[in-house]
Amino acid sequence: MKQRIFLLSFIFLLPFVVVFGQSRKELEKQRKKVQNNITYTAKLLNETNKSTRTSTNKINLLQQNIKQRTQLISIVGKELDELNLFLDTLQNKKTKLCEELQQLKDNYTLLVQQTHFHYNAISSFMFVFSAKNFSQLFRRFRYLQEFSAYRKQQIKEIEAKQTEIQKTEENIVANIEKKNDFIKLKREETIRLEYDKSRENKNLESLKRDKKKWEQKLKEQKRQAAELDKKIQKIIDQEIKKRTKTVTDNKGKVVEKMELTKEETLLAGNFEKNKGRLPWPVEKGFVTKKFGIQKHPTLPHIEYNIKGIFIQTTANSNARVVFDGVVSSVIVIPGKNTAVIVQHGNYFTLYQNLQTVYVKQGQKVTAKQAIGKIYTDLEDDNKTEMEFRILKNYTPLNPELWLAK
Hints:
59% of the residues lie in helices and 20% in strands. The strands form 3 sheets. Strands 3, 6, 7, 8, 9, 10, 11, 12, 13, 14 and 15 form an 11-stranded antiparallel β-sheet that branches. It has a two-stranded antiparallel sheet with strand order 1-2. Strands 4-5 form a two-stranded antiparallel ribbon. α1 packs antiparallel against α2 (56-121) and α2 (56-121) runs antiparallel to α4 (134-209). A hairpin with a 3-residue loop joins β8 (325-333) and β9 (337-344). It is built from 6 helices and 15 strands. The chain has 2 domains: 2-209, no CATH class; 260-401, Distorted Sandwich (Glucose Permease (Domain IIA)), CATH 2.70.70. The longest helix has 76 residues, at 134-209. The protein is of the alpha+beta class and 405 residues long. It has helices spanning 2-48, 56-121, 124-129, 134-209, 211-243, 262-273, and strands at residues 244-248, 254-258, 286-289, 292-295, 303-306, 309-313, 318-320, 325-333, 337-344, 347-357, 364-365, 370-374, 376-377, 383-392, 395-397.
């Protein structure tokens, strides 16, 4: 009966153990990814530490670091919660196993006592050969064999239960060590987080003192962005006009329609099917400015209308094309370096702020092909940042919805 109860308990707990294992692995995967991101951001921050002056790059990196550390502390907290639940499960299992072991020992002790009393009263030899006939002798002999086998089986069950308890205890000890490691990691990351926040506040205070200087710089950046928008619009206009024909629709109305070749239609269709799976336009990096209307991180009264995303990476990094296509144009913007536009049917991708370009207009390119080296701004703490856009005809799209997570 007790074995059946234990079996039912095990079956009930099994889904929890499986789900816990999956959840724990997923959290571990997330934690390692965030830790790698922190290491990467720290590498970029080390470059800024060579300069004592305040820069928007330094502030952006500190804010990125704070965001990542906060995320890491949250994940470690969830791992601790999961681990505590698992330890409770293991402890309950150990308690149940100990109770079952004690029951097995009590049963065996009682059996030994009864056997000892029986053997004192009459020897096994006399028990067998005092039978009245051969049939009774055979049954008594079989009884002693089965009785001996039963005792051996009980000993095996006791030993197996002791082994299971030992393994459970070892599992508990191992998980307690992990728990202590997580507590230590959480404590260390909390200290580092407070330090990063302190550094951020100092840099923000310094930036506020030079508010006019930074506002002037932002105005110039907006002017350059507007100039880039005009050039992009002009290039796409030209590409669309090349393929636009005047046709009559079903209602007899004359309309303009963009016609693509079979190859361009296929390319556009494949590009669209890969939404959410496109490779990143850099080998490694993170988004510093998001798509749409965004407030300046340090001067909140200033807003940007960002038509793509900005990605920061390490010095000497290359821009990579995200999908097969044809280089539509290579354009130079004073103060914004060089931009490359790649056409994918009626979709376009833009890679801006390149100091060296490896491709030319009309050249076919393939996914992940390096198309240029990203500019590193030595006057802004070695900031290496690229603007990336995706457009469908004239309409800018949010690149984060198209790139692989």
